[in-house]
Design goal:
This protein is of the alpha+beta class and about 220 residues long. The protein has one domain (about 1-15, about 30-220). The protein is about 35% helix and about 15% strand. The chain is built from five helices and eight strands. Strands 1-4-3-5-6-7-2-8 form an eight-stranded antiparallel β-sheet. A hairpin with a 4-residue loop joins strand 6 and strand 7 (about 195-200). Helix 2 packs across helix 4 (about 160-170) and helix 3 packs across helix 4 (about 160-170). The longest helix is centred in the middle third of the chain and has 25 residues, at about 70-95.
Length: about 220
């Protein structure tokens, strides 16, 4: 993983004019797909296709229409990343992946001190956050020391492990974007879904065929 200066990032994102950075376009105008893990991959995967699915917010939440306990989520998360792994490894072989937070966010995950017993304060979440921050700090993408410069807005990923370290926090609510090949912008959500926006319909068709062969795809409506 390598931190990117803002000047470098601005050059890299030039081909990504197709991406709706401000989320202003009608969905019909975009070449976008939303994917989820096939139901055959996990006993609880069918919940992801239910309109009542709250994703990460459903964990131990008595108000959630589809209740999940902590172990349910961890098991689903492991299966989700295992399902996605061949696609990510394939993209990394073809080109580097650029990670950046959404424009109106930063890298940090904020833990609500008003809910000290909440899910975000649990050990397994804290461990994922610690690993995530350690990677960003080691690569100087962010700093935990007083410095004159701001945190960098992007980093180049070179391995699946780096991707997963970031995505484990994306599925817990940190909004991250992953840019690759000048043709795709990928985001993984706290609903355990994958959104991909393509530069054009032709690229979308090619990538979707590849994904179907590699991991088997199930589209969300």
């Amino acid at each position: 993983m390598k931190a990117l200066r803002t000047s470098e990032l601005l050059k890299i994102i030039q081909p990504y004019t197709f991406f709706d950075w401000d989320n202003e376009q009608d969905s019909q105008q975009k070449s976008v797909v939303n994917l989820a893990i096939p139901e055959s991959k996990h006993p609880l995967a069918h919940q992801i296709y239910d309109p009542s699915w709250w994703g990460f917010d459903a964990i131990d939440n008595p108000h959630a229409p589809l209740f999940l306990n902590e172990q349910n989520w961890i098991s689903l998360e492991v299966s989700f990343f295992s399902w996605l792994q061949p696609a990510i490894e394939c993209w990394l072989k073809e080109d580097e992946i650029i990670a950046t937070p959404y424009l109106n966010h930063d890298w940090w995950c904020y833990f609500d001190d008003k809910e000290p017993n909440g899910v975000m304060h649990r050990k397994w979440v804290q461990n994922d956050d610690k690993h995530y921050k350690k990677l960003l700090i080691l690569t100087s993408t962010i700093t935990n020391q007083p410095v004159l410069r701001d945190n960098y807005r992007a980093a180049t990923l070179h391995s699946y492990d780096e991707f997963i370290a970031l995505e484990k926090m994306a599925v817990k609510g940190i909004p991250l974007l992953f840019l690759t090949q000048g043709k795709m912008v990928i985001s993984v959500t706290d609903y355990l879904t994958v959104k991909i926006e393509f530069c054009d319909h032709e690229t979308k068709e090619i990538v979707m065929r590849m994904l179907d062969e590699l991991i088997g795809i199930h589209l969300l409506e």
